[in-house]
């Protein structure tokens, strides 16, 4: 079941990434697949995060003008770095996730551009400018998206939803329940 | 206990998975980087074929969404003025805008229809359904592919001039590298073919939206406002197509070529409809591989 949720979140993220740029170009600076990768890495699911990073990166690369595999490489490595950080430091706090998202965006962009320059395909746009746009877009949208994903998918959220109805029943009292 | 062991195993094996996946990506990247002429890969074909319906939908939705937002803005402003008059005005404005859009679209499509007469080649009209999703490159995706007779390296044009060439294909979509991309190039001449000796080649400058013309002799006369046309010597574009207009010239000397900047004739930042010319450059004779002093009769 968690795998299904992951696959669904990934599919939605890839479709959003490939389609929203046509609606309004600045939306292409928001890296939706990276947000999903960061979310899974923060859940400390190493295998999921690495695979999702590779698949998301390759899928977006295949529909863009860049080298296939560059995005896969950068997202896989980013996923691992965040997974390692999440296993050593408690990153459950929403505020702490903001710098994590920002760092993920910078690392992803830097590795992506590094491989393109190394293999003779330098990007056509200014690195600093595009990286800054991606950093801002991904961090802002990612903060809300992580909060949303957290409240929908995590075990704690599921428990909260389950016990909320029980608490309500308990508050009513046994006599009222009988009526 | 079993769960703890599993977590520990996962933590221990994660670096191995990481290395395997990174190597996989590296191999794919290296294979993709080997072919600098086209970017046709099976994975690209499949992803583009799968995603094209969603991209077509979002492309259509963008126009409707823009109109929706405009209507909301119009409604907010009506609160401060006479409601009935404002509504009539906004309705008239909306209709006028639609009429202007229709007129502009009509003009663009008319330009595409005239392409056959201008170029003498059959063409496939297409709509731009997506721009580069990564934000790093100058490519677009159009809603026509190999099922419409399009092949790799075919030139893509508008009524204003050349747009680029096809670099990857799926049955229903094609990816186009624009002339402003740093990897794009074309043979070019200043002014009319046969009427000028100012030959050179144009190359994209990336983010500036301009292209650069190189190797034009410093002795040739080139002025701002001159038109640049294709020569057909690059094996991609047919001769006589407009590339753009000279916007800046740094004059050269007898030993140094001019430095020329060109604004593309096709409005590349506002592309909606394009045409793919069904043009294949005439085959060139294969270069002589044997050494000049080898007697061919001995074979």
Key traits:
heterodimer, A: mainly alpha, 81% helix, 0% strand, B: alpha+beta, six-stranded antiparallel barrel, 4 helices, 35% helix, globular
End-to-end separation of chain A: 38 Å
What is the structural class of chain A? mainly alpha
For the largest beta-sheet of chain A, the strand count, sense and barrel status come to: none
Using DSSP, what is the number of strands of chain B?
12
Give an overview of the whole structure.
- The complex is a heterodimer of chains A (179) and B (299).
- Chain A is mostly helical.
- Helices cover 81% and strands 0% of the residues of chain A.
- Chain A starts with a helix and ends with a helix.
- In chain B, strand 7 (199-204) and strand 8 (211-214) form a beta hairpin.
- In chain B, the strands form 2 sheets. In chain B, strands 1-2-5-4-3-12 form a 6-stranded antiparallel β-barrel.
- The model of chain B has no long low-confidence stretch (mean pLDDT 80).
- Chain B has 299 residues and is an alpha+beta fold.
- Chain B is globular, with a radius of gyration of 26 Å.
- Chain B has 4 helices and 12 strands.
- The interface between A and B is large, with 56 and 57 residues.
In brief:
Chain A is an all-alpha fold and about 180 residues long.
Tell me the layout of helices and strands:
The complex is a heterodimer of chains A (179) and B (299).
Chain A: H1 2-23, H2 32-42, H3 46-63, H4 70-88, H5 94-118, H6 127-153, H7 155-172, H8 174-178
Helix pairs in contact in A: 1-2, 1-3, 2-3, 2-4, 2-6, 3-4, 4-5, 5-6, 6-7
Chain B: H1 2-34, H2 42-78, H3 83-113, H4 115-119, E1 123-131, E2 139-142, E3 155-158, E4 161-169, E5 174-178, E6 185-190, E7 199-204, E8 211-214, E9 227-230, E10 242-250, E11 259-264, E12 273-277
Antiparallel strand pairs in B: 1-2, 1-12, 2-5, 3-4, 3-12, 4-5, 6-7, 6-9, 7-8, 8-11, 9-10, 10-11
């Amino acid at each position: 079941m968690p795998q299904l949720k992951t696959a669904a979140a990934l599919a939605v993220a890839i479709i959003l990434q490939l389609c929203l740029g046509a609606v309004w170009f600045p939306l292409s600076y928001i890296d939706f697949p990276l947000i999903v990768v960061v979310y899974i890495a923060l859940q400390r699911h190493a295998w999921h995060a690495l695979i999702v990073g590779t698949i998301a990166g390759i899928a977006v690369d295949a529909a863009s003008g860049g080298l296939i595999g560059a995005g896969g490489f950068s997202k896989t490595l980013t996923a691992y770095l965040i997974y390692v950080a999440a296993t050593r430091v408690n990153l459950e706090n929403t505020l702490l996730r903001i710098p994590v998202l920002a760092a993920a965006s910078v690392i992803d962009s830097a590795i992506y551009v590094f491989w393109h320059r190394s293999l003779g395909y330098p990007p056509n746009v200014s690195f600093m400018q595009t990286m800054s746009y991606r950093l801002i877009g991904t961090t802002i949208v990612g903060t809300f998206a992580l909060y949303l994903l957290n409240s929908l998918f995590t075990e704690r959220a599921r428990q909260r939803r389950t016990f909320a109805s029980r608490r309500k029943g308990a508050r009513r009292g046994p006599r009222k329940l009988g009526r | 206990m079993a769960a703890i062991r599993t977590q520990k195993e996962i933590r221990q094996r994660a670096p191995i998975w990481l290395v395997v996946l990174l190597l996989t990506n590296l191999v794919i990247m290296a294979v993709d980087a080997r072919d600098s002429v086209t970017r046709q890969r099976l994975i690209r074909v499949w992803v583009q074929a799968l995603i094209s319906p969603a991209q077509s939908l979002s492309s259509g939705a963008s126009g409707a969404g823009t109109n929706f937002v405009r209507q909301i803005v119009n409604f907010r402003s009506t609160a401060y003025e006479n409601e009935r008059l404002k509504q009539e005005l906004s309705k008239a404005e909306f209709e006028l805008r639609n009429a202007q859009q229709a007129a502009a679209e009509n003009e663009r499509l008319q330009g595409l229809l005239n392409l056959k007469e201008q170029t003498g080649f059959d063409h496939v009209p297409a709509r731009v359904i997506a721009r580069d999703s990564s934000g790093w490159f100058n490519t677009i995706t159009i809603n026509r592919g190999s099922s419409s007779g399009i092949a790799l390296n075919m030139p893509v044009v508008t009524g204003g001039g050349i747009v680029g060439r096809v670099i990857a294909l799926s049955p229903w979509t094609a990816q186009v590298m624009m002339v402003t991309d740093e990897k794009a190039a074309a043979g070019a001449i200043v002014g009319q073919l046969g009427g000028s000796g100012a030959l050179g080649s144009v190359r994209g400058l990336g983010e500036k939206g301009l292209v650069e013309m190189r190797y034009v002799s410093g002795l040739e006369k080139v002025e701002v406002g001159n038109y640049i046309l294709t020569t057909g010597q690059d094996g991609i574009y047919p001769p006589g197509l407009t590339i753009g207009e000279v916007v800046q010239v740094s004059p050269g000397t007898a030993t140094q070529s001019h430095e020329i900047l060109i604004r593309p004739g096709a409005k590349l930042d506002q592309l909606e409809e394009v045409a793919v010319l069904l043009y294949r450059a005439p085959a060139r004779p294969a270069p002589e591989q044997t050494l000049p002093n080898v007697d061919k009769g001995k074979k």
